[in-house]
Amino acid sequence: MIKGIIFDLDGVITDTAQLHYNAWKKLAEELEIFFDYKFNETLKGVSRMDSLDKILIYGKKQNDYSTAEKEVLAEKKNNHYIQELNKLNSESILPGIKGVLMYLKEQNLLIALASASKNAPIILKKLELYEKFDVIIDPATLKEGKPNPEIYLNAVEVLGLQNSEVIGIEDAVVGVKAVNSANILSVGVGDKMVLKEANVVISTTKELLNCIKRIQREQL
């Protein structure tokens, strides 16, 4: 029986992709590295430091910065991003998500967030959803990022549930891999071909409520 739902944030609860793009592009321009939407797609679901490494490699500048200097660059990107976050409000929640959260509360299901974003609490507060979540995993406490399952295993443990009692919802390949590696039922939101490793794939968040209800019925 399903007792909890673990959500990714970006692309599932809200879409901050454009905000991330604006922030990374601003940093890349400061570093004189070409950056466009196509390359930005390769950063989907990737942690901030790993994204920075990919950008530096792409710009052939991977040997130009020390570890400490990279930390400064990552912090600079984050500052750009926090400025972008001021554009967020409750209207930025993806379609159907408010209804899903309301249903989960009515069903007394536990709700967790497993996002690689260190800004997740800020974002949830901007969206006026912070109080809806029982658990928000702090990625700073983790040793590994997705596709490693650590964040999901951590969420299950904090929720006090078994892996078989939760659903993990993701929109990126690395996220789906993390859910699957944790032996949790995975729901992918997006392209069926891209997210083919997910146990269930839906096109948009509008379909999520019916998807969860269907899984619940199947497990009765």
From TrEMBL:
The record marks 115, 146 as: Important for catalytic activity and assists the phosphoryl transfer reaction to Asp8 by balancing charge and orienting the reacting groups. Gene3D superfamilies: HAD superfamily/HAD-like (3.40.50.1000), Putative phosphatase, domain 2 (1.10.150.240). Pfam families: Hydrolase. It comes from the Bacteria. Binds 2 magnesium ions per subunit. The keyword Chaperone does not apply. InterPro entries: B-phosphoglucomutase_hydrolase (IPR010976), Beta-PGM (IPR010972), Beta-PGM-like (IPR051600), HAD-like_sf (IPR036412), HAD-SF_hydro_IA (IPR006439), HAD_sf (IPR023214), PGP-like_dom2 (IPR023198). Its EC number is 5.4.2.6. The active site is at 8 (nucleophile), 10 (proton donor/acceptor). Mg(2+) binds at residues 8, 10, 170-171. Its cofactor is Mg(2+). The keyword tRNA processing does not apply. GO terms for molecular function: beta-phosphoglucomutase activity; magnesium ion binding. Coiled coil: none annotated. Substrate binds at residues 8-10, 24, 43-48, 51, 77, 115-119, 146. Keywords: Carbohydrate metabolism, Isomerase, Magnesium, Metal-binding, Phosphoprotein, Plasmid. PANTHER family: 6-PHOSPHOGLUCONATE PHOSPHATASE, HEXITOL PHOSPHATASE B. Belongs to the HAD-like hydrolase superfamily. CbbY/CbbZ/Gph/YieH family. This is Beta-phosphoglucomutase. It comes from Carnobacterium inhibens subsp. gilichinskyi.
